Amino acid sequence: MRRLISLLVAMALATMPQAVSALELSSWDLQQSPAPEALVIVVNHSNELNNLSFSELRSIFLGRRSHWADGRRITLVMREPGEAERRVVLREICGMSEDQLKSHFIRGLYTGEILTTPKTLSTPAGVRKFIFNVPGAIGYLRLSDVDASVKAVRIDKLLPEERGYRLHVRVQEPEPRD
Amino acid sequence: MTSRLKFIAQRQSAYPMSWIDRMLRAASRHKAIVLLLLVCCGVAVIGAFVIRDLHAADVEAQQMYTGSVHGLQRIGELQYDAQETRRATLYALTTSDSNLQVEYADQSRNADQRVKDGIEEYARQAKLPGEVSLAKRLAHDWAGYLSVRDEVLASILEGSTKEAVNLDLSGGVPAFELVRQDLNQVKRLYDQDASQRLANLGASWRRSSWKLIGILAFTFVLSGTAVWAVQRGRMLNAIHLAKLQMEFVASVSHELRTPVAVMSSAADNLADGLIEGRASLQKYGALLQKQSRRMGELVDEILLFAATEDRENRYILQPLEIYPIIESIVASSEALIQGTDVAFHPQIEPSLPLVMGDPVAISQCLQNLIGNAIKYGGDHPRITLRVFSAPADNGSEEEVRISVGDRGIGIDPSELSRIFDPFYRSPSVNAAQIHGTGLGLSLAKRIAESIGARITVVSELSVGSTFTLHLQNAKGDDLQTAVGASRPASSARV
Predict the structure, then answer these.
(1) pTM of the model
(2) Domain A2-169 - what CATH class?
(3) Complex ipTM over 0.85
């Protein structure tokens, strides 16, 4: 029965139009965008985590890793679809489009590979408050939205201000082309 | 007259409030208004106490009202915010929208911060040991509930609703129950405190009321007493004056009746032709002359007293040589005592300075004093007239004193303060059948005061009395104007 449901879901996803492909994402016009702002990965202050490799970050954001080293459950916090920060995460970390990500999580839930879906919040303040309240939460914020209520995490041992940091949001993040 | 005086004396001694009357009469003689002034001062002081007491009670009531309102508001807010903390947490359970859940979590945290502030304020204001320990327990229990609340919130936000409910039931409900009990205990303590304050206020009001009643009663009694005292003092004075006037009329009548009777008898004898011979006629003429002169003097004295009654200054003050006046007085006195067994000893200091006064006034004054000395000098009067210079009472100036002394019956010390009152006659003098109007000394005092002088008296019962007229020395510009007018008289020293 479970296998049958998985099959039906996979067929439904295959019939959906592909909005944006990974290749298309790379065709954005970077030359004309204003100076980008760093996108900071933030966790709760009680989390002892200070650094994540990019691959660890990818596995967390794709739901493949469900618990922290201390055994606490990981709760992923995302902005709503369409937000610039979410597009950067999809593009740089997940390497997927919105629909692909959705398919990925539905599939993972049904197969049991993924335990929880990301929590979706509409504002940076909501993200901050969520992470402040949930010890195992991880999310992302523009550098200008980060305050003392959350803790920034190094990525590949790099802080957001440091050279070589990979996650940046343009002030006017381009819409992905269909 | 004597029996009447005795009756009055007996009636006064039998009257139980005689000493009060004497006191009132003495007070009213000086100024009855002083008594009223004292009453006013007393009422003002008492009023100030009443106002202070009422103000203190008012402040206490205001403090209690403010404390009650503030305390009730504080406890109410504390309870509401504690409930709000829990309520907002439970609201987060009712939705799966993470945005709403975060909002509820935020509301819960804001409410719990207000509760923390309230507990800290309560701890700061806690004074009694019970309040202090309760504040600590409340803070501890609240922290315990918050730790559970944080876990519940985290579970709700993570999406573990079941886990959140289990956590709340197992830890949150008991922890919040402790907090609720603590808050109820805070309210109970506050109620006890408010009851105590209410009792204190009631006691304070009762105290104030009793004080007010006491003060009003005291003021009423004091005012009544003052009015009674003033009225009684006036009445006693009026009675006393009426009595003196009656005695005066009786004395004057008596004084007039004797010479009139003598003159009438002499006139009858003359008219009936019973007097024969030149010697008898001369004797009757002298008798009529003496009695008519006595009547004239009496009438003059009464007229003079009436003239000085309005206290207008009828004399002209000027620097005077004292010697001519004394010389005249000595001459008239010696003429007066001629043929009697009165001994008169004038002792006059030479080179006395000029004095300020009026010769007529000084003469009238001294004549009264000498007349008194003769009248009250005993069976064989021995009159001493001393005129000398002495330091004035202020010590910096000199004055001329004229003292008239006798070795007569003297004056009782209790009567010394009254002998200058108009119409006053000592009971002992009346008893001794020494006639008089009671105006002599009063008249002398008024005349002396009208020329800026004064009369003092030193007396000892059965030893004698000395009355002294104190005259101011002339000084300054007055001396220049006096030189020409007074110098010739200086040769007539005695």
Answers:
(1) 0.51
(2) alpha beta
(3) no
